[in-house]
Amino acid sequence: MAAAAAAAPAPEAWPELELAERERRRELLLTGPGLEQRVRAAGGRLPPRLFTLPLLHYLEVSGCGSLREPGPGLAQGLPQLHSLVLRRNALGPGLSPELGPLPALRVLDLSGNALEALPPGQGLGPAEPPGLPQLQSLNLSGNRLRELPADLARCAPRLQTLNLTGNRLDSFPAELFRPGALPLLSELAAADNCLRELSPDIAHLASLKMLDLSNNQLSEVPAELADCPKLKEVNFRGNKLTDRRLEKMVHGCQTKSILEYLRSGGRGGGRCRAKADGPEKEEARRRRRERRRRESGEGEGEGVDSASRLLLRILHVSENPAPLTVHVSPMVRDVRPFIVGAVVRGMDLQAGNALRRFLTSQTKLHEDMCEKRTAATIATHDLRAVRGPLLYTARPPHDLKIVPLGRREVKAKDLVRQLQLEAEEHRKQKKRQNVSGLHRYLHLLDGKETYPCLVDADGDVISFPPITNGEKTKIKKTTSDLFLEVTSAASLQTCKEIMDALVLKMAEINKYTLENKEDGSLSDPEADAASGQPPGPSGSPGATKAGSASLVVEQVRVLDEDGHLKVVYPSKTDLGLAAPHVTVIR
């Protein structure tokens, strides 16, 4: 017996877990070729020791063909988890046991697995009480799902983005479109499925902005879709619509034209709206029109003195003789697929500590809204040094070259290795458990076969998210016009919300700078309570009379490899939650 015991194989070592426990880390990524064998030895599950790290906020386990189920203990052991990424594994056919409850989880990525169904007890979590009460982004793309759980909306009532692309769904559960079921859902992607019909109840998704049902088996589009008050982007390409005119429109017309056609009673499951609409819907449309007029700046003198207002003027692509565009390569799909851009003109960074205040605000957004860059990453550039059009792509670490801020040109793999050595040396010198600065984000690249990057028309890499910008487009005190980018692996809506916050914060800083030029109080480190206003010398087209100047925000289009529009920022629905002292002129 003793000999048999001595011959028993030793348990697989997990040095990553020991390090995370010792350093009290909040982020952990498990990937790489050695992971397969260790997970297989653990019975196709994650090691139980992983669930004894209660401080974890971000956990990613990706690219492991041996991982068939997370294993028991996840919900109990990781109560503070904000982001859970389990993509490109072999999870399925269900989840046993179910994932939730995870009360703090905001991002859940289960894409690229072998999930076939998520029934109660083998799904995402309980419905009563909600198992995922704070979940905002759910990615189930690239699985084998034939149906969605009927209680999905009750399990995750605050869901904002839902990606179901590349499954085998033939319908949505009726409960998904129940009035008030998902009041915050803004993006629904279910391309490349087998959907045969779309319920008219989709009109109950009051926050829906983007709907992608391309490459399905739809024959009709309900006219009620036009009742979605915020819907700005639809994609029905690759279906078999019986309405020939509508079929042509979905391939060549903008969303606005498609919705107007449905609203006017065009075929495709619709009806004559003039006859069918009651006074309640007419009144609702009248209120929406009135709200848009108020948001566009009409009556701006009411309530708040115009001299104290911040004006944000939107310059549309059609009004811009040389709009900046970003082309997105399919290479980023599995790395960091979402990007939003904008141009802001009229910033004054020369006076006092304005530049420091701007950079500090960016750091705070990275810490808070961006969840330490795990949810998204911001990059800001001097527009004068940006050569468009831009390409957002991904390259192998040994092929990606960049001149990082304050450094010489280096390959990405060498830069990461250099930063890792610096981080360890810094930790030893300061005798701290944690590292600081951009060293904190190196783990986000662990195991990645390619790194995302933004390349200008000269072929120079100007951004390497989530690590650094390029020296070429570095922000200086003399910078007045900026190109902003926000990238994310979570969702497009996350990018837009963070861009909204960044633009408004820039405006507040600008106003604070202008108002404090003469009294010498610019050294104050914060300008949180101020509203924004730009300088006169910038030559920005937004400059007006003293005391009520405006920043100009130029739309930037993001296009796919075929030149089709993926997103434009700011759209009519962006910057819609501005403070009372802010007027957005569209």
From TrEMBL:
It comes from Zalophus californianus (California sealion). Residues 274-285 have a biased composition (Basic and acidic residues). GO terms for molecular function: phenylalanine-tRNA ligase activity; RNA binding. The keyword Ribonucleoprotein does not apply. Residues 266-304, 517-547 are annotated as: Disordered. SUPFAM superfamilies: L domain-like. The keyword Calcium does not apply. PANTHER family: LEUCINE-RICH REPEAT-CONTAINING PROTEIN 47 (PTHR10947:SF3), PHENYLALANYL-TRNA SYNTHETASE BETA CHAIN AND LEUCINE-RICH REPEAT-CONTAINING PROTEIN 47 (PTHR10947). This is Leucine-rich repeat-containing protein 47. It comes from the Eukaryota. GO terms for biological process: phenylalanyl-tRNA aminoacylation. The gene is LRRC47. Residues 409-436 form a coiled coil. Residues 335-511 form the B3/B4 tRNA-binding domain. Keywords: Coiled coil, Leucine-rich repeat, Phosphoprotein, Repeat.
